[in-house]
C-alpha cells in the first residue's frame, strides 16, 4: 500500500511538472510571438505581423476570454496597412465591440469611409469615437464633421448638440452652416445675429440675404394683415387712422424686403424671388411691376 501511495505521489509530481513546463513554454512562445509581431509591424512587414497576430488571437481565445483579446485591434491595423480592408474592418469591429480599440482605430476607419464615400459607416464610426474617446474626438475635429453630416441629413437638433462642442472661431462656412441650423430650428434671434455676422464678412452672402429679406417681408406682412383685420372688425375713423399708420410702418419693411429680393433676382431670376416681389408690388398697388413679376412666377 505504501508503495502504491508513493507511485501516485510521484505521478502527480510528474504531471504537475509537465503542466508547469508546458505553461511556461506557452507563455514564452506567446511573449516571443508578440515581440516578433510588434517588430514586424514596426519595420513594415505587415503580412508577417498579421499572420503572427492571428496566431496570437487564436492562442488567446483558446485559453482566455475572447472579450478581453487585445490582438483584434493589432491585427486590424496590420490588415489595414496591407489594404485588406474587409479583414481590417472585421478585426476593428471586434475590437470596438469589445472595447479594446484605440483612438487611432477610429480615425483610420473614419478616413477610409470618407475616402470611399460610405456616409453611413463614417457617421456611425464618428459617433462611436465620441462615445468611446470624447477627449480625442474633440481634439480631432470629430464634432465638426458630425455637425456637417447631421445638417446634410436634416438632423438639426443633433447638429445643435455638436455645434456646442466646436471649439474654434467661426469662419464664413461655419457661420453659414449655423445659420441653416438655427433657421430650420426656428431660432430667429440666433439666426438673425448670425446673418448679420455673415453680411459683415460678405455682403453678397445669399442665404444671409435671403434670411434678412424674409425677416422684413414677414414682419411687414404680419403688420399689414393685423391692421387690415382690425379695421374690418371695427370700421371707425380712429381705426382707419391706425390702419394707415400700420400700412406706413409695414411699407418700410416691405421696401427693405423688396430691395434685397430685387438684388437676389438680378443675380439669379428664380421663381421664389419673383413670388415675393409680386406680393410686395401688389401691396403697393403697383400693377405694372406686379404684373411683371407675376409673369415670372
How many DSSP helices? 15
Instruction: Write down how many β-strands occur, each being a DSSP E stretch of 2 or more residues.
Output: 0
Structural class: mainly alpha
What is the rounded Rg? 35 Å
Strand content: under 5%
User: What is the N-to-C succession of helices and strands?
Assistant: HHHHHHHHHHHHHHH
Task: Output mean pLDDT.
Answer: 90
Q: N-to-C terminal Cα separation, in Å?
A: 112 Å
Task: Characterize the main sheet.
Answer: none
Helical residue percent band = over 70%
Using the alpha-carbon principal axes, give the shape: rod-shaped
Low-confidence stretches: 1-28
Provide a descriptive summary of the structure in words.
This protein has a domain at 205-297. The chain contains 15 helices and no strands. The chain has helices at 2-42, 46-63, 71-81, 85-98, 103-115, 119-132, 134-139, 142-152, 156-163, 172-185, 188-201, 206-233, 237-267, 271-283, 287-294. The longest helix has 41 residues, at 2-42. The protein starts with a helix and ends with a helix.
Amino acid at each position: 500500500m505504501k508503495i502504491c501511495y508513493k507511485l501516485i505521489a510521484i505521478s502527480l509530481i510528474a504531471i504537475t511538472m509537465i503542466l508547469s513546463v508546458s505553461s511556461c513554454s506557452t507563455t514564452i512562445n506567446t511573449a516571443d510571438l508578440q515581440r516578433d509581431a510588434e517588430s514586424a509591424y514596426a519595420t513594415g512587414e505587415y503580412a508577417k505581423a498579421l499572420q503572427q497576430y492571428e496566431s496570437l488571437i487564436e492562442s488567446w481565445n483558446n485559453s482566455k476570454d475572447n472579450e478581453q483579446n487585445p490582438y483584434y485591434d493589432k491585427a486590424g491595423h496590420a490588415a489595414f496597412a496591407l489594404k485588406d480592408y474587409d479583414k481590417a474592418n472585421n478585426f476593428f469591429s471586434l475590437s470596438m465591440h469589445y472595447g479594446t480599440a484605440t483612438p487611432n482605430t477610429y480615425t483610420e476607419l473614419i478616413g477610409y469611409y470618407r475616402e470611399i464615400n460610405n456616409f453611413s459607416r463614417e457617421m456611425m464610426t464618428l459617433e462611436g469615437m465620441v462615445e468611446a474617446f470624447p477627449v480625442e474626438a474633440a481634439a480631432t475635429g470629430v464634432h465638426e464633421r458630425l455637425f456637417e453630416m447631421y445638417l446634410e441629413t436634416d438632423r438639426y437638433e443633433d447638429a445643435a448638440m455638436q455645434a456646442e462642442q466646436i471649439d474654434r472661431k467661426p469662419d464664413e462656412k461655419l457661420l453659414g452652416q449655423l445659420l441653416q441650423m438655427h433657421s430650420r430650428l426656428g431660432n430667429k434671434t440666433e439666426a438673425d445675429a448670425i446673418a448679420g455676422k455673415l453680411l459683415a464678412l460678405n455682403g453678397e452672402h445669399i442665404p444671409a440675404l435671403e434670411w434678412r429679406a424674409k425677416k422684413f417681408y414677414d414682419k411687414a406682412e404680419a403688420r399689414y394683415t393685423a391692421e387690415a383685420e382690425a379695421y374690418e372688425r371695427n370700421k371707425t375713423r380712429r381705426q382707419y387712422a391706425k390702419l394707415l399708420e400700420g400700412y406706413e410702418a409695414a411699407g418700410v419693411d416691405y421696401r427693405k424686403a423688396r430691395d434685397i429680393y430685387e438684388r437676389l433676382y438680378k443675380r439669379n431670376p428664380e421663381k421664389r424671388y419673383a413670388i415675393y416681389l409680386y406680393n410686395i408690388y401688389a401691396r403697393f398697388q403697383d400693377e405694372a411691376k406686379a404684373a411683371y413679376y407675376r409673369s415670372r412666377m
